[in-house]
Amino acid sequence: MPIIQAFWAIIRRDLLLAFRRRAEMANPLFFFVLVVTLFPLAVGAQPNLLRAMAPGVIWVSALLAALLSLDGLFRSDFEDGSLEQMLLSPHALSILVLGKIIAHWLVTGLPLLLVAPLLAVFLGLPEQAMGTLWLTLILATPLLSLIGAIGVALTVGLRRGGMLLSLLVLPLYVPVLIFASGAVDRAASGLPVNAQLNILLAMLLSALVLVPLPTAAALKMSVN
């Protein structure tokens, strides 16, 4: 099988498995909605305060939702032996890993793109910031999956690696959170956001090139 066909086969397989486990697939989305909707209950009916908090609230919730779904990226494959078959495959493991990361984003990150604008309206985010919110989600949610893949690969062989995974990944998520929420906040204030978006784009392109290789190496170490 050519490497391109193997790449698409990995994505198709993971999507099929995700749709068979719809409850698990919906957990990060429900968590995201729940966290965002709890903030108005905590701070009260203060439209100006909610409007100012909206970029940070949405992005912190998206980050935590992405973190919640990370552990399943390679865990089920490790438990059922599929990961060992991937390691024994004649194809480049880094390409197969990239396919799994893309499938993970389609299942967990893409639904956030659809729900986040509705929650932004709920929080009173200005209309002029909606386009920037979409752009930051499109650029940064795949980045969360890519960065998280390295942490998952390092901890996949551990029985209780969830806490260690959070400690590894959360510091790496901080720059994404700063630039993404900062861009939305500046857009809401009518300020230019080209610098923040360009930085996020550069981070995404760099991660697409750099992440698959160390993730593949970490998987080999974890399985062996």
UniProtKB/TrEMBL annotation:
Domain of life, source organism: Bacteria
Intracellular or extracellular location(s): Cell inner membrane
Keywords from the UniProt entry: Cell inner membrane, Cell membrane, Cytochrome c-type biogenesis, Membrane, Transmembrane, Transmembrane helix, Transport
Cellular component aspect of the GO annotation: plasma membrane
Membrane topology note: Multi-pass membrane protein
GO BP, one annotated term: cytochrome c biosynthetic process
Major place of residence: membrane
Keyword Chloroplast carried by entry: no
Coiled-coil ranges per UniProt: none
TM segment ranges: 54-74, 95-125, 131-156, 163-184, 196-219
GO molecular function, one term: heme transmembrane transporter activity
Keyword rRNA-binding: no
Family (UniProt): Belongs to the CcmB/CycW/HelB family.
Job description of the protein: Required for the export of heme to the periplasm for the biogenesis of c-type cytochromes.
Identification of the protein by name: Heme exporter protein B
Organism: Methylomonas methanica
